[in-house]
């Protein structure tokens, strides 16, 4: 049969590509494409070779397992080949595998399988002689691997000497070396802190860590192992089943997967796969599927092998968590707190069980670190409910048409200036009061208890109002009508009337509360109080520059910059003017009493006061320059104790701190008038 030139060229291209990807994945520890793309190319080449056997060549990657052996390590020949497994990706293919097994065994009876997670790590064969670890080798090409004995000895979960009974004279214990998720996060953070290259995923990190020439480096890496079988064995009979072999390995002191199960029939296998898939993201380590093996050793021998895999085992692969696609654009998303997040608009790709068209790029620094450009081909990762992210650019596929991303200097939503402080990774919109992206959070904050304290205006009600387009900013609250509110969910005529009254009552406030309500970045209650006491007038504050602002206690250069920038935004000033126009007002604030006897003193209020509430007492003390703390410490000067004072009074006594009653508090306030 004549094979077309096109088919021959495609087979040659696939061989070249797969061998190249094998080299990057196994030799350099720098994979260029996700596993799903590799699997597709490998399956396509297999299909071509099955359809046209004449295409099969000695150097075809379908005829061997993995990649070439590094010349940096000594070469070791496996006493028994370390073959790979064929993959299936859906229940239909798994059902076909089960049918093939039963057909080969000439039985209609349900088959007994051993099932365990398919770990995303690095396969290893560890040789023990007289129970002592003498050699460890990677899979390599299946027949020859790399001698990584010194490195494997550093892994604490690998026994240096087997324990227990019936230990063979020689035995190869095989397993998967991997890096747990938390260890991977710690390692990458350490790499970043030391300005070193971060790893793409835990599998890549495990491979790079195990194959260090300096075993001292490997010893610092959080590697672990789960053993999954026995290779060569001498001086003892091979166990009658896989599950018996695993029990024997565990008795020798080797780690095996706690997820190992013995299952009867195909339906039990389907249930196991479904249940483990649901728990996949909550496991402490990455898995990419489930391995099913015919449990009976004698039946395994009857079934035998094909060229590169056993007939008695299969790997059921979960949906890929990494895929390759193209960045079509990079847009800015403004969050509820004003943070600007670059988002990659992707050519849609199926990854992690869903079609993904957007992925986070986190911030400008991450874009620069990963060198992401518009038009690049990239690897995208999605695990569980985690937001998809771009993890790596495939630089070998970059063209001259790619474009660099530039962070905007004005908010794309409202046009306000964008700020980015030195030492911070996040850029932020400065139009807090006006910006639609921040609208709901800004209004919730404005109406909160420590701000204008609008009774009855909860978070859900604010969200309803914004969604119904009844309000666009805080000033709109004060022109709401009973009729507008009565139409909202769970808001009757009486409730609407009460809320309108509460909003009207909140117009009369205090200057510090108003400043806090504006939501200026990093301006909390204490800073708002300091600003009010220093300036005593809104116009004076609006006109103040950073140089004047840093003279105030609690206001440093960064906070001063936030305040100045906030009042420079026309949109913010527009909302403030509207608030004044609708009647929001406050009594003239007296300037700080720097000469007050209480100025600079730290006071704690506890118990119930009769003549005023604790919040009123706090306001008066702050106006006199005192600091009001919530807990008693060595820095406390006085504790004001009302009725039913509790543990704070006890703590004051233990620290020998002066305690005064409400009468003394009133006397202080009277003297300072």
UniProtKB/TrEMBL annotation:
Keywords: DNA damage, DNA repair, DNA replication, Ligase, Magnesium, Manganese, Metal-binding, NAD, Zinc. Its EC number is 6.5.1.2. PROSITE patterns: BRCT, DNA_LIGASE_N1, DNA_LIGASE_N2. Residues 593-673 form the BRCT domain. Pfam families: BRCT, DNA_ligase_aden, DNA_ligase_ZBD, HHH_2, HHH_5, OB_DNA_ligase. The keyword DNA repair applies. It catalyses: NAD(+) + (deoxyribonucleotide)n-3'-hydroxyl + 5'-phospho-(deoxyribonucleotide)m = (deoxyribonucleotide)n+m + AMP + beta-nicotinamide D-nucleotide. The keyword NAD applies. Its cofactor is Mg(2+); Mn(2+). The active site is at 118 (n6-amp-lysine intermediate). One of its GO terms (biological process) is DNA replication. InterPro entries: BRCT_dom (IPR001357), BRCT_dom_sf (IPR036420), DisA/LigA_HHH (IPR041663), DNA_ligase (IPR001679), DNA_ligase_AS (IPR018239), DNA_ligase_CS (IPR033136), DNAligase_adenylation (IPR013839), DNAligase_N (IPR013840). GO terms for cellular component: cytosol. Zn(2+) binds at residues 411, 414, 435. One of its GO terms (molecular function) is metal ion binding. NAD(+) binds at residues 35-39, 84-85, 116, 139, 176, 293, 317. NCBIfam families: dnlj, PRK07956.1. Belongs to the NAD-dependent DNA ligase family. LigA subfamily. DNA ligase that catalyzes the formation of phosphodiester linkages between 5'-phosphoryl and 3'-hydroxyl groups in double-stranded DNA using NAD as a coenzyme and as the energy source for the reaction. It is essential for DNA replication and repair of damaged DNA. This is DNA ligase. The gene is ligA.
